[in-house]
Protein backbone atom coordinates (compact mmCIF):
# COMPACT_ATOMS: atom_id res chain seq x y z
CA UNK A 1 0.00 0.00 0.00
CA UNK A 2 1.39 3.32 -1.12
CA UNK A 3 0.66 5.96 1.55
CA UNK A 4 0.63 9.72 0.91
CA UNK A 5 -0.45 12.75 2.88
CA UNK A 6 -2.17 15.58 1.04
CA UNK A 7 -3.62 18.98 1.85
CA UNK A 8 -7.38 19.38 2.10
CA UNK A 9 -8.69 20.30 -1.34
CA UNK A 10 -5.89 18.60 -3.30
CA UNK A 11 -7.24 17.23 -6.57
CA UNK A 12 -8.67 13.72 -6.21
CA UNK A 13 -7.12 11.29 -8.72
CA UNK A 14 -9.28 9.29 -11.14
CA UNK A 15 -10.72 5.97 -9.85
CA UNK A 16 -10.86 7.15 -6.25
CA UNK A 17 -13.07 6.52 -3.29
CA UNK A 18 -13.33 9.07 -0.51
CA UNK A 19 -13.70 7.83 3.07
CA UNK A 20 -14.95 10.71 5.17
CA UNK A 21 -14.71 10.34 8.94
CA UNK A 22 -17.80 11.82 10.60
CA UNK A 23 -19.04 11.99 14.17
CA UNK A 24 -22.16 11.15 16.06
CA UNK A 25 -24.72 13.92 15.96
CA UNK A 26 -23.08 15.73 13.05
CA UNK A 27 -25.55 16.77 10.36
CA UNK A 28 -24.73 16.40 6.68
CA UNK A 29 -26.08 18.72 4.04
CA UNK A 30 -27.39 18.26 0.49
CA UNK A 31 -27.37 14.89 -1.22
CA UNK A 32 -25.22 13.39 1.53
CA UNK A 33 -27.71 14.50 4.16
CA UNK A 34 -30.50 12.91 2.12
CA UNK A 35 -28.59 9.62 1.90
CA UNK A 36 -27.99 9.67 5.66
CA UNK A 37 -31.65 10.43 6.32
CA UNK A 38 -32.62 7.41 4.24
CA UNK A 39 -30.37 5.09 6.27
CA UNK A 40 -29.66 4.02 9.83
CA UNK A 41 -26.27 5.71 9.80
CA UNK A 42 -25.75 7.84 12.91
CA UNK A 43 -21.96 8.29 12.92
CA UNK A 44 -21.51 5.63 15.58
CA UNK A 45 -18.18 3.83 15.84
CA UNK A 46 -17.74 1.20 13.17
CA UNK A 47 -20.68 2.29 10.99
CA UNK A 48 -20.16 2.96 7.30
CA UNK A 49 -22.48 4.35 4.66
CA UNK A 50 -21.54 3.89 1.03
CA UNK A 51 -22.85 6.64 -1.27
CA UNK A 52 -22.39 6.71 -5.04
CA UNK A 53 -20.77 9.88 -6.39
CA UNK A 54 -22.91 12.66 -4.97
CA UNK A 55 -22.54 15.94 -6.78
CA UNK A 56 -19.70 18.08 -5.53
CA UNK A 57 -17.62 15.10 -4.40
CA UNK A 58 -14.77 14.59 -6.77
CA UNK A 59 -14.67 10.80 -6.60
CA UNK A 60 -16.50 7.75 -7.88
CA UNK A 61 -17.88 7.02 -4.46
CA UNK A 62 -18.04 8.41 -0.98
CA UNK A 63 -18.08 6.34 2.18
CA UNK A 64 -19.07 7.97 5.42
CA UNK A 65 -17.31 6.33 8.33
CA UNK A 66 -18.67 6.78 11.83
CA UNK A 67 -16.11 7.55 14.52
CA UNK A 68 -18.38 7.99 17.53
CA UNK A 69 -18.33 11.09 19.71
CA UNK A 70 -16.17 13.92 18.42
CA UNK A 71 -14.68 14.80 21.82
CA UNK A 72 -13.61 11.16 22.33
CA UNK A 73 -11.84 11.03 18.93
CA UNK A 74 -8.31 9.77 19.51
CA UNK A 75 -5.50 7.82 17.83
CA UNK A 76 -7.29 4.49 18.12
CA UNK A 77 -10.58 5.90 16.81
CA UNK A 78 -8.80 7.42 13.80
CA UNK A 79 -6.99 4.17 13.10
CA UNK A 80 -10.15 2.09 13.26
CA UNK A 81 -12.28 4.54 11.28
CA UNK A 82 -9.77 4.73 8.43
CA UNK A 83 -9.42 0.94 8.46
CA UNK A 84 -13.20 0.57 8.28
CA UNK A 85 -13.28 3.00 5.36
CA UNK A 86 -10.62 0.99 3.56
CA UNK A 87 -12.45 -2.28 4.22
CA UNK A 88 -15.67 -0.83 2.78
CA UNK A 89 -14.09 -0.06 -0.61
CA UNK A 90 -11.06 -2.32 -0.83
CA UNK A 91 -12.59 -4.58 -3.48
CA UNK A 92 -14.63 -1.90 -5.29
CA UNK A 93 -12.39 -1.82 -8.34
CA UNK A 94 -11.30 1.71 -7.45
CA UNK A 95 -7.59 2.30 -7.07
CA UNK A 96 -7.08 5.22 -4.71
CA UNK A 97 -8.54 5.85 -1.28
CA UNK A 98 -8.75 9.40 0.01
CA UNK A 99 -9.28 9.60 3.78
CA UNK A 100 -10.75 12.86 5.09
CA UNK A 101 -11.57 14.06 8.56
CA UNK A 102 -8.78 12.50 10.64
CA UNK A 103 -7.46 15.96 11.55
CA UNK A 104 -4.42 15.74 13.82
CA UNK A 105 -4.61 11.94 13.71
CA UNK A 106 -3.81 11.62 10.00
CA UNK A 107 -0.74 9.43 10.62
CA UNK A 108 -2.82 7.12 12.83
CA UNK A 109 -5.43 6.89 10.09
CA UNK A 110 -2.77 5.92 7.57
CA UNK A 111 -1.45 3.32 10.00
CA UNK A 112 -4.95 1.86 10.30
CA UNK A 113 -5.17 1.49 6.52
CA UNK A 114 -1.74 -0.16 6.41
CA UNK A 115 -2.80 -2.74 9.01
CA UNK A 116 -6.20 -3.38 7.41
CA UNK A 117 -4.70 -3.90 3.97
CA UNK A 118 -2.48 -6.77 5.10
CA UNK A 119 -3.26 -9.90 3.08
CA UNK A 120 -1.60 -13.30 2.93
CA UNK A 121 -2.36 -14.42 -0.61
CA UNK A 122 0.85 -15.95 -1.90
CA UNK A 123 -0.73 -19.40 -2.24
CA UNK A 124 -3.82 -18.28 -4.14
CA UNK A 125 -3.03 -18.98 -7.76
CA UNK A 126 -6.51 -18.85 -9.34
CA UNK A 127 -8.14 -15.90 -7.64
CA UNK A 128 -10.13 -13.88 -10.19
CA UNK A 129 -8.92 -10.28 -10.52
CA UNK A 130 -12.31 -8.93 -9.45
CA UNK A 131 -11.96 -10.64 -6.06
CA UNK A 132 -8.59 -9.10 -5.31
CA UNK A 133 -8.33 -5.82 -3.40
CA UNK A 134 -8.07 -2.98 -5.87
CA UNK A 135 -7.03 -0.04 -3.68
CA UNK A 136 -3.27 0.30 -4.09
CA UNK A 137 -2.77 3.83 -2.87
CA UNK A 138 -4.09 5.82 0.07
CA UNK A 139 -4.01 9.59 0.47
CA UNK A 140 -4.79 10.91 3.90
CA UNK A 141 -5.75 14.55 4.26
CA UNK A 142 -3.45 16.14 6.84
CA UNK A 143 -3.07 19.61 8.29
CA UNK A 144 0.63 19.67 7.37
CA UNK A 145 1.32 16.83 4.92
CA UNK A 146 5.14 17.00 5.02
CA UNK A 147 5.43 16.94 8.80
CA UNK A 148 2.83 14.16 8.98
CA UNK A 149 4.78 12.09 6.47
CA UNK A 150 7.94 12.50 8.54
CA UNK A 151 6.05 11.47 11.67
CA UNK A 152 4.59 8.48 9.85
CA UNK A 153 8.02 6.81 9.57
CA UNK A 154 7.76 5.13 12.99
CA UNK A 155 4.25 3.91 12.17
CA UNK A 156 5.47 2.50 8.88
CA UNK A 157 8.27 0.67 10.70
CA UNK A 158 5.72 -0.80 13.10
CA UNK A 159 3.35 -1.80 10.30
CA UNK A 160 6.21 -3.52 8.46
CA UNK A 161 7.06 -5.41 11.65
CA UNK A 162 3.46 -6.50 12.21
CA UNK A 163 3.24 -7.70 8.59
CA UNK A 164 6.46 -9.67 9.12
CA UNK A 165 4.92 -11.40 12.15
CA UNK A 166 1.62 -12.03 10.35
CA UNK A 167 3.48 -13.62 7.44
CA UNK A 168 5.40 -15.95 9.77
CA UNK A 169 2.24 -16.96 11.62
CA UNK A 170 0.26 -17.48 8.40
CA UNK A 171 2.84 -19.64 6.63
CA UNK A 172 1.91 -23.32 6.49
CA UNK A 173 3.95 -25.73 8.59
CA UNK A 174 5.45 -27.56 5.61
CA UNK A 175 7.04 -24.26 4.58
CA UNK A 176 7.87 -22.65 7.92
CA UNK A 177 9.76 -25.25 9.93
CA UNK A 178 12.43 -24.23 12.47
CA UNK A 179 15.36 -23.82 10.05
CA UNK A 180 13.24 -21.80 7.61
CA UNK A 181 11.92 -19.59 10.41
CA UNK A 182 15.51 -18.98 11.53
CA UNK A 183 16.58 -18.19 7.96
CA UNK A 184 13.85 -15.57 7.61
CA UNK A 185 14.89 -13.97 10.86
CA UNK A 186 18.53 -14.04 9.78
CA UNK A 187 17.54 -11.78 6.87
CA UNK A 188 16.73 -9.07 9.42
CA UNK A 189 20.45 -8.41 9.63
CA UNK A 190 19.71 -6.14 6.67
CA UNK A 191 17.86 -3.74 8.98
CA UNK A 192 20.62 -3.71 11.59
CA UNK A 193 19.83 -6.62 13.90
CA UNK A 194 22.48 -9.16 14.89
CA UNK A 195 21.15 -12.69 14.54
CA UNK A 196 22.77 -15.90 15.82
CA UNK A 197 21.29 -19.30 15.05
CA UNK A 198 22.11 -22.26 17.30
CA UNK A 199 21.62 -25.80 15.99
CA UNK A 200 20.93 -28.99 17.92
CA UNK A 201 24.59 -29.79 18.57
CA UNK A 202 25.18 -26.38 20.15
CA UNK A 203 22.05 -26.68 22.24
CA UNK A 204 23.08 -30.15 23.39
CA UNK A 205 26.43 -28.73 24.49
CA UNK A 206 24.56 -26.12 26.54
CA UNK A 207 22.52 -28.88 28.20
CA UNK A 208 19.13 -27.93 26.75
CA UNK A 209 17.62 -31.36 27.33
CA UNK A 210 14.14 -29.96 27.78
CA UNK A 211 13.83 -28.01 24.49
CA UNK A 212 15.63 -30.70 22.50
CA UNK A 213 13.30 -33.46 23.73
CA UNK A 214 10.31 -31.73 22.13
CA UNK A 215 11.90 -31.64 18.67
CA UNK A 216 13.28 -35.17 18.91
CA UNK A 217 10.42 -36.78 16.97
CA UNK A 218 10.65 -34.40 14.03
CA UNK A 219 12.81 -34.76 10.94
CA UNK A 220 13.10 -30.96 11.08
CA UNK A 221 15.96 -29.92 13.34
CA UNK A 222 15.28 -27.55 16.22
CA UNK A 223 16.84 -24.11 16.35
CA UNK A 224 17.44 -21.45 18.97
CA UNK A 225 17.61 -17.95 17.50
CA UNK A 226 19.22 -15.04 19.33
CA UNK A 227 18.38 -11.58 17.99
CA UNK A 228 20.14 -8.48 19.27
CA UNK A 229 19.41 -4.80 18.85
CA UNK A 230 21.96 -2.40 20.30
CA UNK A 231 20.44 1.07 20.17
CA UNK A 232 21.13 2.55 23.61
CA UNK A 233 23.71 5.33 23.96
CA UNK A 234 25.49 3.02 26.41
CA UNK A 235 26.13 -0.02 24.26
CA UNK A 236 26.73 -2.16 27.33
CA UNK A 237 23.50 -1.17 29.12
CA UNK A 238 21.47 -4.15 30.38
CA UNK A 239 18.99 -5.20 27.70
CA UNK A 240 15.27 -5.79 27.80
CA UNK A 241 14.64 -9.35 26.70
CA UNK A 242 11.82 -11.11 24.87
CA UNK A 243 11.48 -14.87 24.60
CA UNK A 244 9.06 -16.62 22.25
CA UNK A 245 7.53 -20.08 21.99
CA UNK A 246 8.09 -21.20 18.43
CA UNK A 247 6.40 -24.56 17.97
CA UNK A 248 6.18 -24.52 14.18
CA UNK A 249 3.64 -27.31 14.36
CA UNK A 250 2.13 -28.91 17.44
CA UNK A 251 0.57 -32.32 16.83
CA UNK A 252 0.75 -33.01 20.55
CA UNK A 253 3.42 -35.63 19.88
CA UNK A 254 2.78 -39.10 21.35
CA UNK A 255 -0.04 -37.53 23.44
CA UNK A 256 -1.52 -36.71 20.05
CA UNK A 257 -4.25 -34.11 19.58
CA UNK A 258 -7.64 -34.88 18.02
CA UNK A 259 -7.85 -34.27 14.25
CA UNK A 260 -10.44 -31.50 14.43
CA UNK A 261 -8.80 -28.08 14.05
CA UNK A 262 -5.32 -29.54 14.36
CA UNK A 263 -4.35 -27.41 11.34
CA UNK A 264 -4.62 -24.39 13.64
CA UNK A 265 -1.50 -25.61 15.39
CA UNK A 266 0.63 -24.10 12.62
CA UNK A 267 0.29 -20.89 14.59
CA UNK A 268 1.76 -22.39 17.74
CA UNK A 269 4.81 -20.29 16.89
CA UNK A 270 2.89 -17.03 17.41
CA UNK A 271 4.96 -16.10 20.46
CA UNK A 272 8.23 -16.44 18.55
CA UNK A 273 6.63 -14.60 15.64
CA UNK A 274 5.74 -11.69 17.91
CA UNK A 275 9.23 -11.57 19.40
CA UNK A 276 10.75 -11.49 15.90
CA UNK A 277 8.28 -8.74 15.02
CA UNK A 278 9.01 -6.53 18.00
CA UNK A 279 12.75 -6.79 17.32
CA UNK A 280 12.00 -5.84 13.69
CA UNK A 281 10.05 -2.81 14.94
CA UNK A 282 12.80 -1.66 17.32
CA UNK A 283 15.42 -1.89 14.58
CA UNK A 284 13.09 -0.32 12.03
CA UNK A 285 12.64 2.81 14.09
CA UNK A 286 16.16 2.75 15.55
CA UNK A 287 14.91 2.58 19.14
CA UNK A 288 17.32 3.92 21.76
CA UNK A 289 17.42 0.71 23.74
CA UNK A 290 19.35 -2.52 23.97
CA UNK A 291 17.09 -5.49 23.35
CA UNK A 292 17.44 -9.23 22.98
CA UNK A 293 14.97 -11.62 21.35
CA UNK A 294 15.22 -15.38 21.86
CA UNK A 295 13.18 -17.82 19.77
CA UNK A 296 12.81 -21.47 20.73
CA UNK A 297 11.95 -23.20 17.45
CA UNK A 298 10.84 -26.83 17.33
CA UNK A 299 8.28 -29.13 15.73
CA UNK A 300 6.31 -31.48 18.02
CA UNK A 301 5.68 -34.75 16.14
CA UNK A 302 4.81 -38.36 16.92
CA UNK A 303 7.56 -40.73 15.75
CA UNK A 304 9.61 -43.75 16.80
CA UNK A 305 12.17 -41.31 18.12
CA UNK A 306 9.71 -39.00 19.90
CA UNK A 307 9.96 -38.21 23.57
CA UNK A 308 7.45 -40.14 25.65
CA UNK A 309 5.11 -39.59 28.57
CA UNK A 310 7.18 -40.89 31.48
CA UNK A 311 10.51 -39.60 30.21
CA UNK A 312 12.59 -37.57 32.65
CA UNK A 313 14.41 -34.62 31.06
CA UNK A 314 17.28 -32.57 32.44
CA UNK A 315 16.96 -28.90 31.58
CA UNK A 316 19.82 -26.43 31.14
CA UNK A 317 19.07 -25.10 34.64
CA UNK A 318 19.82 -28.56 36.06
CA UNK A 319 16.23 -29.05 37.16
CA UNK A 320 14.63 -32.33 36.07
CA UNK A 321 11.19 -32.71 34.52
CA UNK A 322 8.96 -35.75 34.36
CA UNK A 323 6.98 -35.63 31.11
CA UNK A 324 3.40 -36.66 31.73
CA UNK A 325 1.93 -35.22 28.53
CA UNK A 326 3.96 -34.56 25.39
CA UNK A 327 1.34 -31.99 24.36
CA UNK A 328 2.46 -29.70 27.19
CA UNK A 329 5.56 -28.97 25.10
CA UNK A 330 5.66 -25.18 25.01
CA UNK A 331 6.78 -24.88 28.62
CA UNK A 332 9.57 -27.39 27.91
CA UNK A 333 10.83 -25.21 25.08
CA UNK A 334 10.57 -22.05 27.16
CA UNK A 335 12.25 -23.61 30.21
CA UNK A 336 15.56 -23.76 28.37
CA UNK A 337 15.05 -20.58 26.35
CA UNK A 338 14.25 -18.53 29.49
CA UNK A 339 17.12 -19.99 31.47
CA UNK A 340 19.55 -19.36 28.63
CA UNK A 341 18.29 -15.79 28.24
CA UNK A 342 18.76 -14.78 31.87
CA UNK A 343 22.02 -16.70 32.20
CA UNK A 344 23.67 -15.11 29.16
CA UNK A 345 22.19 -11.61 29.09
CA UNK A 346 21.23 -10.69 32.70
CA UNK A 347 18.32 -8.65 31.28
CA UNK A 348 16.65 -5.90 33.30
CA UNK A 349 13.31 -7.39 32.36
CA UNK A 350 12.38 -10.57 30.53
CA UNK A 351 8.99 -11.07 28.85
CA UNK A 352 7.96 -14.33 27.22
CA UNK A 353 5.12 -14.75 24.75
CA UNK A 354 3.57 -18.12 24.09
CA UNK A 355 0.46 -19.77 22.68
CA UNK A 356 0.81 -21.88 25.79
CA UNK A 357 -2.56 -23.22 26.91
CA UNK A 358 -6.09 -23.87 25.75
CA UNK A 359 -7.06 -23.05 29.33
CA UNK A 360 -6.39 -19.33 28.84
CA UNK A 361 -8.99 -19.31 26.04
CA UNK A 362 -11.51 -20.86 28.42
CA UNK A 363 -10.61 -18.33 31.12
CA UNK A 364 -10.50 -15.11 29.09
CA UNK A 365 -12.11 -15.67 25.70
CA UNK A 366 -10.51 -14.12 22.63
CA UNK A 367 -10.03 -10.46 23.54
CA UNK A 368 -7.47 -10.81 26.34
CA UNK A 369 -4.16 -12.55 26.72
CA UNK A 370 -3.15 -13.72 30.20
CA UNK A 371 -0.39 -11.72 31.90
CA UNK A 372 1.61 -13.36 34.68
CA UNK A 373 4.44 -11.58 36.43
CA UNK A 374 6.73 -11.74 39.44
CA UNK A 375 7.21 -7.95 39.30
CA UNK A 376 4.57 -5.27 39.89
CA UNK A 377 6.28 -2.54 37.90
CA UNK A 378 6.76 -4.70 34.83
CA UNK A 379 3.17 -5.94 35.03
CA UNK A 380 1.89 -2.36 35.27
CA UNK A 381 4.03 -1.32 32.29
CA UNK A 382 2.68 -4.18 30.20
CA UNK A 383 -0.94 -3.56 31.14
CA UNK A 384 -0.64 0.15 30.36
CA UNK A 385 0.96 -0.55 26.97
CA UNK A 386 -1.74 -3.09 26.18
CA UNK A 387 -4.41 -0.57 26.96
CA UNK A 388 -2.78 2.12 24.84
CA UNK A 389 -2.44 -0.18 21.84
CA UNK A 390 -5.76 -1.99 22.24
CA UNK A 391 -4.04 -5.32 22.83
CA UNK A 392 -5.90 -6.58 25.87
CA UNK A 393 -4.00 -8.11 28.76
CA UNK A 394 -5.54 -9.44 31.95
CA UNK A 395 -3.42 -10.00 35.02
CA UNK A 396 -3.47 -13.56 36.30
CA UNK A 397 -2.18 -14.85 39.64
CA UNK A 398 0.86 -16.99 40.47
CA UNK A 399 -0.34 -18.68 43.66
CA UNK A 400 2.50 -20.45 45.45
CA UNK A 401 0.17 -23.20 46.67
CA UNK A 402 -0.70 -24.34 43.13
CA UNK A 403 2.88 -25.50 42.74
CA UNK A 404 1.79 -28.76 44.44
CA UNK A 405 -0.07 -29.62 41.21
CA UNK A 406 3.22 -29.97 39.35
CA UNK A 407 5.04 -32.00 42.00
CA UNK A 408 6.46 -35.21 40.55
CA UNK A 409 7.09 -38.51 42.31
CA UNK A 410 10.45 -38.99 40.68
CA UNK A 411 11.74 -35.64 39.37
CA UNK A 412 11.85 -31.96 40.38
CA UNK A 413 8.53 -31.30 38.64
CA UNK A 414 6.16 -32.72 36.06
CA UNK A 415 5.15 -30.89 32.92
CA UNK A 416 1.41 -30.55 33.57
CA UNK A 417 -0.71 -29.91 36.60
CA UNK A 418 -3.98 -31.23 35.22
CA UNK A 419 -6.99 -29.21 34.11
CA UNK A 420 -7.73 -26.95 37.11
CA UNK A 421 -6.01 -23.60 36.52
CA UNK A 422 -4.18 -25.05 33.54
CA UNK A 423 -2.81 -21.72 32.35
CA UNK A 424 -1.72 -20.83 35.91
CA UNK A 425 0.22 -24.03 36.56
CA UNK A 426 1.90 -23.60 33.16
CA UNK A 427 3.03 -20.13 34.27
CA UNK A 428 4.23 -21.48 37.64
CA UNK A 429 6.28 -24.02 35.70
CA UNK A 430 7.93 -21.23 33.68
CA UNK A 431 8.62 -19.22 36.82
CA UNK A 432 11.03 -21.94 37.93
CA UNK A 433 13.29 -21.03 35.00
CA UNK A 434 13.57 -17.27 35.41
CA UNK A 435 15.93 -17.19 38.38
CA UNK A 436 14.22 -14.17 40.00
CA UNK A 437 14.79 -11.81 37.06
CA UNK A 438 11.85 -9.36 36.70
CA UNK A 439 9.76 -11.46 34.36
CA UNK A 440 6.36 -11.63 32.74
CA UNK A 441 4.66 -14.34 30.76
CA UNK A 442 1.96 -13.54 28.21
CA UNK A 443 -0.21 -16.53 27.37
CA UNK A 444 -1.39 -15.47 23.90
CA UNK A 445 -3.16 -18.69 22.88
CA UNK A 446 -6.36 -16.62 23.11
CA UNK A 447 -5.27 -13.72 20.91
CA UNK A 448 -2.68 -14.82 18.34
CA UNK A 449 -5.24 -15.68 15.71
CA UNK A 450 -8.70 -14.25 14.92
CA UNK A 451 -11.11 -16.40 12.91
CA UNK A 452 -13.15 -14.39 12.18
CA UNK A 453 -11.89 -10.96 13.18
CA UNK A 454 -14.26 -8.17 14.20
CA UNK A 455 -11.50 -5.57 14.41
CA UNK A 456 -11.11 -3.39 11.28
CA UNK A 457 -7.30 -3.26 11.52
CA UNK A 458 -6.98 -7.06 11.80
CA UNK A 459 -7.88 -9.13 8.74
CA UNK A 460 -9.07 -12.70 9.51
CA UNK A 461 -6.15 -14.87 10.59
CA UNK A 462 -2.82 -13.90 12.11
CA UNK A 463 -3.07 -10.90 14.45
CA UNK A 464 0.58 -10.21 15.18
CA UNK A 465 -0.52 -9.84 18.80
CA UNK A 466 2.16 -8.46 21.10
CA UNK A 467 4.21 -6.50 18.58
CA UNK A 468 2.39 -3.20 19.12
CA UNK A 469 2.18 -3.71 22.84
CA UNK A 470 5.87 -4.44 23.41
CA UNK A 471 7.04 -1.78 20.98
CA UNK A 472 4.93 0.73 22.93
CA UNK A 473 6.17 -0.48 26.32
CA UNK A 474 9.79 -0.13 25.21
CA UNK A 475 9.12 3.34 23.80
CA UNK A 476 7.28 4.59 26.89
CA UNK A 477 9.35 2.94 29.64
CA UNK A 478 12.71 1.58 28.57
CA UNK A 479 14.20 4.00 26.06
CA UNK A 480 16.80 6.40 27.32
N1 LIG B 1 -0.27 -25.15 21.75
C1 LIG B 1 -1.12 -25.67 22.75
C2 LIG B 1 -2.04 -24.65 23.38
C3 LIG B 1 -3.14 -24.15 22.51
C4 LIG B 1 -4.34 -24.80 22.46
C5 LIG B 1 -2.97 -22.99 21.78
C6 LIG B 1 -5.36 -24.33 21.68
C7 LIG B 1 -4.00 -22.51 20.99
C8 LIG B 1 -5.20 -23.17 20.93
C9 LIG B 1 -0.27 -26.29 23.87
O1 LIG B 1 0.95 -26.81 23.48
C10 LIG B 1 -1.06 -27.40 24.45
O2 LIG B 1 -1.28 -28.36 23.76
N2 LIG B 1 -1.46 -27.25 25.71
C11 LIG B 1 -2.23 -28.23 26.36
C12 LIG B 1 -1.65 -28.43 27.74
C13 LIG B 1 -2.19 -29.63 28.45
C14 LIG B 1 -1.72 -30.89 27.77
C15 LIG B 1 -1.70 -29.60 29.87
C16 LIG B 1 -3.67 -27.72 26.43
O3 LIG B 1 -3.84 -26.51 26.58
O4 LIG B 1 -4.57 -28.52 26.29
MN1 LIG C 1 0.80 -28.82 22.84
ZN1 LIG D 1 1.79 -26.01 21.81
Write structural notes for this entry.
The chain has an eight-stranded mixed β-sheet, with helices on both faces. A six-stranded mixed β-sheet has the order 1-6-5-2-4-3, sandwiched between helices. A three-stranded mixed β-sheet has the order 11-12-16. The chain is an alpha/beta fold and about 475 residues long. It is elongated and about 80 Å long. The chain contains 13 helices and 19 strands. The model has no long low-confidence stretch (mean pLDDT about 95). The longest helix is centred in the first third of the chain and has 26 residues, at about 145-170. Helices cover about 30% and strands about 20% of the residues. The structure holds ligand BES, manganese (II) ion (MN) and zinc ion (ZN). The site of zinc ion has 5 residues, from β9. Manganese (II) ion (MN) binds near residues 250, 252, 327 and 329.
Q: Tell me the overall shape.
A: elongated
Helix content: 25-40%
Strand content: 15-25%
Computed Rg: 24 Å
Structural class: alpha/beta
Hetero groups: ligand BES, manganese (II) ion, zinc ion
Overall strand count? 19
Strand order of the largest sheet: 7-8-10-9-13-17-14-15
Keywords:
alpha/beta; binds zinc ion; 480 residues; 6-stranded mixed sheet; binds ligand BES; single chain; 8-stranded mixed sheet; binds manganese (II) ion
Q: Brief overview, please?
A:
With 480 residues, the chain is of the alpha/beta class. It has helices spanning 30-37, 75-89, 106-116, 145-170, 178-186, 200-206, 209-215, 270-284, 330-345, 359-364, 376-388, 422-431, 467-478, and strands spanning 2-6, 16-22, 48-52, 61-66, 96-100, 137-141, 194-198, 223-230, 240-250, 290-300, 312-314, 320-322, 349-354, 369-373, 393-395, 413-414, 439-443, 449-450, 461-462. The strands form four sheets. It has an eight-stranded mixed sheet, sandwiched between helices. It has a six-stranded mixed sheet with strand order 1-6-5-2-4-3, sandwiched between helices.
